[in-house]
Amino acid sequence: MAYLPRIIDQRLSRLLRGNPVVRLEGPRGCGKTTTGLHHAASAVHLDTNTSMVELAQLDPDRLLTGPAPRLIDEWRLAPTLWTQLNEHLDATALPGGYVLASSATPPDYRRHTKGADQLPVLRMRTMALAENPRCTPQVSLAGLAYGDRVNKVRSPLSCRELAGEAVRGGWPALVDASIEQAIHYNTGYLHDLTHTDLPAASPTRHQPDRIGQLLASLARHTSGAVSLAGLAADTHTAGEGAGRDTVRAYLDALTRVHTWEPQPAWQPPLRTRARLRHQPRAHLADPALACAALQLDQDRLADDPDTFAAVFTSMVVHDLRVYLEGTGARLVHYRDETGLTIDAIIEYADGGWAAIQTSLGEHRVVDAEIRLHKLCEERLDLDQTGQPRFLAVITGATTGHTTRSHTYVIPLTTLTA
User: Fold this and answer.
1) What is the pLDDT of residues 50-93, one digit of tens each?
2) Are residues 279 and 320 both part of a single domain?
3) Cα dihedral 371/374/375/377 (nearest 10)
4) Vertex 196, ends 235 and 260: CA angle to 5°?
């Protein structure tokens, strides 16, 4: 089967040209192994059988020896490899030596891998729509920051077809799958998450039913602000809510398996006295997991505009993260006490910024545009933040253009890195 190119490919290649080791991390099933193999000259897979992990303890040099770059897949299953790897690096720290891939971070790995956190890391996610063969990327996110305009772009997907992509998700294994097969896959993924992945990623005693309740709560709050207190009240078994410490432990475990990726709040200087809200927004690793937790199929999602709008916002955030990974940019959101919310703020590494609002339908684009300009004209201290690189509304509609106020309207399926 031919390799399906990923946006992260160029960034991984660049890091390998300048570093002896690169970490590649992300949720199980997002394509790390396939991408790692595409860039590697040799590989060893520690998750293929238990004997490989045992061999890593007995003869780590055997696993580390091979043509470079060498992929060590699921290397965290044998964290003592790090000691031997350090010796290899001390002997010859040539660029492009190793790709260390992992889907989970065991709770005690830092005890065995001091210094590994200093290695360059790329966070790999499930496929963005730009990587989907059914979409036609036409607008470059990087180009927008340098003055590119948006003119007469068109999405190949209808709103209902977009709902199908939301339910399917960006798992490479599902590129050619039916919607029904995708729903079965995502439901099984949640089951494995609650019964296998999380117990292995945390020393805390887990209750699968309660983890399922938490995932359902996070799904209901998709793209919305969340707090430990709210999640604890919403996570219950037999009528009893979970404690904050329990929820915190579960969220930590979800973070360790790269399934929970909250979106932090922006804290810019303001020209008004309106207080900022600091709660993060809820996002799972793929919006399809939220759909599976809520038992939504394509028709139910397409017929529920409020839920679809929240899931669509999560799709936008997911894809923006894919496009920004490895660039040094940070993705946050804005919310203040007056109720003004902006779905995505890009903070560039050089201090610049851009603001993006989502709109599932074309009829909400004007409202989204007004919010963006209210942020700039009434809230921010632009003397300190500087002018935005661009303002954009990312939509689920089929056409894109530039408005009279120089705001870009971009169908999500036409956007790429």
Assistant:
1) 788 888 888 888 899 999 999 999 998 887 788 888 887 777 77
2) yes
3) 160
4) 50
